[in-house]
Amino acid sequence: METTRIGIDLGGTKIEGVVLSDGEPAIELARKRVATPSSAEAIIEAVVDLVRSLEYETVSTATVGVGTPGAISALTGLLENSNTVSLNGRALDVELRHALGREVVIANDANCFALSEAHDGAGAGAGTVFAVILGTGVGGGLVVGGRLVRGRNAIAGEWGHNPLPYPSAWERPGMPCYCGHRGCIETWLSGGGLSREYLLTTGHRMTAAEIGERAAVREPAARAALEVYIERLSRALSLVINIVDPDVIVLGGGLSNIAALYEEVPKRWAKWVFSGRRGAGKQARVTLATALVKARWGDASGVRGAARLEVVKDTSSLTRML
To answer: Of 22, 204, 217, 306, which sees the most CB atoms within 10 A?
Structure first.
């Protein structure tokens, strides 16, 4: 039997599986999806059935990686912060390992997204890739030298739960975040954050996608809301650049479809980035070398990245790709 890689994207409404070939470049051999059951036991059974079905279809035996919202706690070994609440508090990797009879690696869905885009996506060939999901929430993942940085606490890349940098007086203390703090980047830069900005200025509700579409045809209110969003995104990403200084920042999620982000944000973030080439602040007008690009694989990046997860001896620091 051919050796392949199976990635599982464990979402709140669907479970998707993909089979990638073991060679390079990786070729997608099969893809299937099923609805996400309500109970943890049924979810585990569904994942096992999906893996076996994909292997049968491709006549292969595969490694298995799983991407899911939340992460396995480095302290407890239990899943935390998944939007599939029935799985929280369970040793999901251990349960799947026993059910499948083989090793299973689990990583946060944003980390899987980052690994996919760094390997053969929009960040391919770059030494350091920071990948961002701008959608219902705001996630992130970091890949250095082809390796996914997981972190000692399994939270590397979680830029969305830091305060929005350089806030104006009226932005303090910010909206409450589900994490228990106020003013997190996620509350400002999620789809809900953009929609809220439009609501505050117009009194009308509109989705982030609709705001982006209307801004593209130069509707004044939508353009004004998007202008504020772009300025906040520029500030937030300047924090990432100051700490990580990545070669490439890849955007995914629903808001990554707003074309203006890729033109406008790189014009502005240098204002808040410390660089030895010139002074910071209002005098900063030099374009940074950091590239801002749209994800190549879009919604498929999560499941493709999951297929590239591999067990390592020291999971406290790195999860390697195959």
So the answer is: 306
Whole-model pTM over 0.70:
yes
Query: Cα–Cα distance between 131 and 250 in angstroms, integer?
Result: 5
- Please give the C-alpha separations between residue 260 and each of 147, 216, 265, in angstroms, as whole numbers: 30, 8, 8
What is the residue whose two structure tokens read 């493709």? 304
The two structure tokens encoding residue 178: 């589900």
Domain ranges, ordered by start, for the chain: 2-114+302-321, 125-295
What would be the CATH architecture of the domain defined by 2-114+302-321?
A: 2-Layer Sandwich (3.30)
Which of 77, 84, 156, 160 has the alpha carbon at shortest distance from 115?
156
Does the fold of domain 125-295 match that of domain 2-114+302-321? yes
How far out from the chain centre does Cα 322 lie?
19
Per residue in 66-117, pLDDT tens?
A: 999 888 988 899 999 888 889 999 999 999 999 999 999 999 999 999 999 9
Q: Which CATH class is domain 125-295?
A: alpha beta
φ and ψ at residue 64, rounded to 5 degrees: -130, 125
In three-state secondary structure terms, 52 is helix
H helices present in the chain, as ranges? 40-58, 92-100, 109-120, 185-189, 191-202, 208-216, 220-244, 260-268, 301-307
- Residue-by-residue DSSP string for 185-221: HHHHHSHHHHHHHHHHHHS----HHHHHHHHHTT-HH
Cβ partners under 8 Å of residue 279, min gap 6: none
